[in-house]
Each structure stands twice: as C-alpha cells, then as structure tokens.
Amino acid sequence: MENSFPKRVYQLVQRIPAGRAATYGQLAALAGSPRASRIVGAALAHAPAGLPCHRVLYRDGTLCCDQAFGGKEVQRQLLEAEGVPFLPDGRVDLKHCLWDPTEGTGESL
C-alpha cells in the first residue's frame, strides 16, 4: 500500500486540524481521483486507529452514517469538542470550517 489511494486518503485525513472538516469529495480530489468519494468512504471504514475520521463529512455538511465513527452523535460530540460550528438543521457549517490544505503552508493547489 506504499502509494495507494487509501494511503493518500489517510495522509490527507491526518492533516485535517482540529476545528476543521473536509468532505469525501474534497479528499477524493486531493488524493487524485475526484470522482472517488465513495472509495474514500470505504477506505475510512478500514482506517487505522487514531485517524481523525470524524472530521470527514458529506458535501453538504451532513454527518456520516450511523454505523461509522461511533455513530452521528459521537461524531457530533467530537466535532463540537473541537469547536466545529453547526447549523440549526444539524449540519456542519462548512462555510466556516472547511479545511483548506494550503492554509498556513504558503502552497497553492
């Protein structure tokens, strides 16, 4: 799995700082396969322990499905503890916390 797609996804997820969130599609694009958001989800279902997978959301800020990451309530609690803002309808406010992988690096994508 030296330079495999799942490994690239794991490396990206590891870079998402507390208080920020990314989408499955965003990670797929950054990992080199913009249409592979479902494959990102499959990779995260088998992610190594300790990876902050709770910071990955659907494109509209909806929390992940109930069986992943301990369920929606656990995911929400983890995100709230990190200061991630939520909208009144329960979705994450991506306008204010979407991860920019170039933030603070001086890089551009």
TrEMBL record:
Reaction equations catalysed: a 6-O-methyl-2'-deoxyguanosine in DNA + L-cysteinyl-[protein] = S-methyl-L-cysteinyl-[protein] + a 2'-deoxyguanosine in DNA; a 4-O-methyl-thymidine in DNA + L-cysteinyl-[protein] = a thymidine in DNA + S-methyl-L-cysteinyl-[protein]
EC class (word): transferase
Classification via SUPFAM superfamilies: Methylated DNA-protein cysteine methyltransferase, C-terminal domain
EC id: 2.1.1.63
Pfam families according to UniProt: DNA_binding_1
GO MF term list: methylated-DNA-[protein]-cysteine S-methyltransferase activity
Keyword Transmembrane helix in annotation: no
Gene3D superfamilies: Winged helix-like DNA-binding domain superfamily/Winged helix DNA-binding domain
Top-level taxon of the source organism: Bacteria
Domain Methylated-DNA-[protein]-cysteine S-methyltransferase DNA binding: 5-84
PROSITE patterns with a match to the protein in the record: MGMT
InterPro entries named among the record's database cross-references: ATL_DNA_repair, MethylDNA_cys_MeTrfase_AS, MethylDNA_cys_MeTrfase_DNA-bd, MethylDNA_cys_MeTrfase_DNAb, WH-like_DNA-bd_sf
Single GO BP term: methylation
Keywords in alphabetical order: DNA damage, DNA repair, Methyltransferase, Transferase
NCBIfam families per UniProt: ogt
Protein name: Methylated-DNA--[protein]-cysteine S-methyltransferase
Organism: Candidatus Egerieicola pullicola
